[in-house]
Amino acid sequence: MLRKMFVIFGASDILWMVFAVSQASQIDIFPSESKIFAQIGDSVSLTCSTTGCESPSLSWRTQIDSPLNGKVKTEGTTSTLIMDPVSFEDEHQYLCTAICKDKKLEKAIRVEIYSFSKDPEIHLSSPAEVGKPVTVTCSVPDVYPFERLEIELLKGNHPMKVQDFLEPSEKKAQETKSLDVTFSPTDEDIGTALVCQATLHIYDDDSPPKVRKTTKELEVYKKNFTVEISPGPQIAAQFGDSVVLTCDVRDCESPSFSWRTLIDSPLNGNVRSEGSKSTLTLSPVSFENEHFYLCTVMCGQKKLEKRIQVKPYSFPSNPEIEMSGPLVSGNPVTVSCRVPNVYPSDRLEIELFKGESIMMNKTFSKDVSKKALETKSLEKTFIPTTEDIGNVLVCLARLPIDEMEFELKQRQSTQTLYVNVAPRDTTILVSPSSILEEGSSVNMTCSSNGLPAPKILWSRQLSNGDLQPISENATLSFMSTKMEDSGIYVCEGINQVGTSRKEVNLIIQVAPKDIQLTAFPSESVKEGDTVIISCTCGNVPPTLIILKKKAETGYTVLKSTGGAYTIHRAQLEDAGVYQCESKNEVGSQLRSLTLDVKGRESNKDYFSPELLVLYCASSLIIPAIGMIIYFARRANMTGSYSLVEAQKVC
Q1: What is the pLDDT of residue 541?
Q2: Do 404 and 234 contact (CB within 8 A), yes or no?
Q3: Are 492 and 457 in contact (CB under 8 A)?
Q4: Which residues contact 511 (CB under 8 A, 6 or more apart)?
Q5: Can you tell me the distance from the alpha carbon of 140 to that of 146, in angstroms, rounded to the nearest whole number?
């Protein structure tokens, strides 16, 4: 007995294919159908079974050996190929092969794919009005294969247009096809139904085609009332401000108003309707008001809608220009141009100018993850020069909202460049000279270049190298100089970006004075004694000391050491007038003394105790005089004088 198993179920389209092998080893293949049609997205099962063979070998493949794109499940004498969901890749000729011992038999079936899952859509270009042309569009979405599609538009029972699409597609894809009909409604069209019928001829035999249709009542207005919404189709609203949207109706005695957003989110505003007007007040404007708002007006059975887009923005203040530090000629500095609390920041444009030359511009990318007020900035590093003094930095910020014009489209800030220059070229002018005679007057004037103008500070250098501030005037004056005014004076030019210094050595000279000329141990000595002629002075700076002895032809200069001349074993001819001359650039002074040398008694060997004491004393005096001369010279070199340390030698 042969058994036929072939069933197609609605969305599943389950196909049963039965292979029968008779007890007498005769194989028959059923059914005789060779093609099925499967909707994209549905599930299809193809089942192949055999009879008369206990252990058949079953397998599936496509005619062109493409991938099956499905799952195969084999159990006993049955094998099932499941495709879920069906797609373009499943459009093939499928073969089921059965091998029973030495016999092999194949059965082929073709799976055709189609898409026809949605009803047609009817759209009007505008509300239908008696005597006014209107275009009706009938569209069928997601169709495949569209070359088998036919669309018909009917007004009531009367066909308006039929259109088919015979040209085959170059690719496998779901497409939307439509037809347009333009007509002028009449009074008879009021209440008439528009019918859009789509037919997909997918079968090649006498099977009925697949049909979908949509019906829409045609609302025809005898009188066109109008609705206007203001301020316009779009409005840019500043955060925190109040915005009033007005819906105004004309040619309708008793309109009914309603407001909503395009996505039916909360209005976040107050509605007030009176007479022919209705207002929606948004206050204060915030992120929640970024919507398309629709005003719906009903006038009797007639309905009109107008929409307006509200785009909140934030651009509350001018840009802020900041510097990383003071402007110093030659030193790099970074200028920052900040625009605070901006929204939407991806529309912001910032440009930085120096004078009329652009230094840098910047735009910003969109961050779709958040809605927030942001501070955006531009930074540029440059090296200022003295040529930039008085130049102007301009930070220009623009915030265009689509193509709309609004009051605060751009903002800018300016800052004048004040370039600092560190003090330099510091000079000291001394009048009349830095070397002066005691009692003279002197003016020392200091100048220094820089921006801002450097402050002048005069200091005196101490012996340890430290500076002792003495004046902040440009000119340091001494009306009557003293010897102790001598020293090193330092002028500093100072501003906030640097310091420059210059120094001068002021020397106050004094004419020689307080000269003392002495003979040690006495001005009256005996022949053979040792005598030291010594010249000392009590002033600084050091002077030139000249010791001389008066002779018949004038004075003879003596070879002295540090103002001291030693006579060993005085002779009678050493007696006479001795003179000391002390002089420097500003004057000189003379001192003189008379040395008396007495002769000793002849033929007498005389050696008194006093002579012994004198001899011993003279042996000590010579080293002492040497020390006096050393300290006198040291005092003259350092510019100090102390009677405790030593007595200066002239």
Answers
A1: 61
A2: yes
A3: yes
A4: 437, 438, 539, 584, 586, 587, 588, 589
A5: 10
Q: Please name every residue paired with 445 in a beta bridge, in sequence order, or none if there are none.
A: 429, 475
d(CA 200, CA 113): 12
Of 458, 444, 461, 442, the C-alpha closest to 493 is 458
Answer for the pair 35, 3: CB distance below 8 angstroms, yes or no: no
Cis peptide before 469 (omega within 30 of 0): no
Rounded to the nearest 5 percent, the helix, strand and coil shares of the chain are 10, 55, 40
**Residue pLDDT, tens place only, 613-650:** 444 455 555 555 555 454 445 444 333 333 223 233 33
List, for residues 376-394, the tens digit of each pLDDT value.
999 999 999 989 999 999 9
* pTM > 0.85: no
Tracing tokens 């009005």 back to the chain, one arrives at 129
How many angstroms separate the CA atoms of 312 and 314, rounded?
7
Residues 550, 552, 553: CA angle, nearest 5 degrees: 95
CA separation for the pair 533, 535 (Å, rounded) = 7
Site of tokens 């909140």: 312
CA neighbor of 237 nearest in space, from 188, 197, 195, 281 = 281
pLDDT digit string (tens) for 405-461? 555 578 999 999 999 999 999 999 999 999 988 899 999 999 999 999 999 999 999
Q: Is the dihedral of CA 530, 536, 541, 545 positive or negative?
A: negative
Give the DSSP letter string of 390-410. Answer: T-EEEEEEE--BTTB--TTSE
What distance lies between CA 34 and its chain's CA centroid? 71
> Do residues 39 and 114 touch, judged by C-beta distance below 8 A?
yes
Contact 157, 194 (CB under 8 A): no
**Angle CA 462–542–650, to nearest 5:** 140
Torsion angle of C-alpha atoms 426, 431, 432, 433, degrees rounded to 10: -30
The CB density around residue 245, as the number of other CB atoms within 10 Å, is 22
Distance CA 530, CA 356 (A): 96
Q: Count how many Cα atoms sit within 13 Å of the Cα of residue 218 in the half-sphere of its side chain.
A: 29
Domains of the chain, each with CATH number or no CATH:
15-115 (2.60.40.10), 118-221 (2.60.40.10), 226-313 (2.60.40.10), 320-416 (2.60.40.10), 422-509 (2.60.40.10), 516-638 (2.60.40.10)
Are 121 and 141 a contacting pair, CB within 8 Å? yes
Residues, the chain: 650
